[in-house]
Amino acid sequence: MNRRKFIKNTSTLGAASMFPFSSFAMDKKIKYKMGYQLFSIRDEMAKDPLGTLRYLKKLGYEDFEIYGFDPVKESYYGFKSNEFKQILDDLNLSVSSGHYGFSSYLEGSNDKLKHFVDKCIIGATTLGSSYVTWPWISPEQRNVENYKLMAHKLNIIGEQVTKAGLGFAYHNHGFEFIDHEGENGFEIIIRETDSSLVKLQMDLYWVMHSSKYTPKELIKQQPGRYVMWHIKDMDKISRDYTELGNGSINYHVILPDPVESGLEFYYLEQGGNFTHNSMRSASDSAFYFKKELRKYL
């Protein structure tokens, strides 16, 4: 956690700021399922995935983004892909995207990467997902050479996933916005990937935490490409994660236009720093989102 640029809370918003969504907030056609990134509640998913999904459904979550795919067992949370899909169907829930472990294949052969991507495609297709998403690279991989290599790999994966009838996306954190000799990883990814093959999943928290641009400014540069969002709040003092409504990000002001973004799915998320615990975090964020922000989406 190391940079700047998050929105300042203010009590003197002008009339224009009070109604930033006038162009689309009342468009009844814009409706999305309320989504949750299951990594936010990974401790409970590890203990009781079925009970956790039932709990999240009661809170109003309808759609999820998964993590932790096991390519050897072709399983999620200890269930074979088809078994997990049946659980979702029985609960009338969906998984529209998944975070898959690509970082270990960054510096490996394209053949090994292709084999892994095939496994991801099979799993995602079984779940009825729309997107396979690259979520992360490890700290030792974060340099200019590897960002360029990753852009190349992203294009390769994007072509393979697209041919299989799914979408492929890259999820940002904050490290992509750190300057390396006058450029940063995010700029390299944008510049050197094919926008028709590699879509983007914007983590709004990390953009506000680390980028010199706001979410709206980034979307204006690449309209239609940000097909997914992660929505989470920033602690007012530590700048760590916190429950929606507890932090410093004023989503009434910074939330982008979903149409300009190309938005298809969004997920509330909190990776840690829970005020109470992960279960209460999921509940508190859902309550705030439904009360304050869902009207925009």
Automatic annotation (TrEMBL):
<feature type="domain" description="Xylose isomerase-like TIM barrel">
    <location>
        <begin position="53"/>
        <end position="253"/>
    </location>
</feature>
<dbReference type="GO" id="GO:0016853">
    <property type="term" value="F:isomerase activity"/>
</dbReference>
<dbReference type="InterPro" id="IPR013022">
    <property type="entry name" value="Xyl_isomerase-like_TIM-brl"/>
</dbReference>
<protein>
    <submittedName>
        <fullName>Sugar phosphate isomerase/epimerase</fullName>
    </submittedName>
</protein>
<dbReference type="Pfam" id="PF01261">
    <property type="entry name" value="AP_endonuc_2"/>
</dbReference>
<dbReference type="InterPro" id="IPR036237">
    <property type="entry name" value="Xyl_isomerase-like_sf"/>
</dbReference>
<keyword id="KW-0413">Isomerase</keyword>
<dbReference type="InterPro" id="IPR050312">
    <property type="entry name" value="IolE/XylAMocC-like"/>
</dbReference>
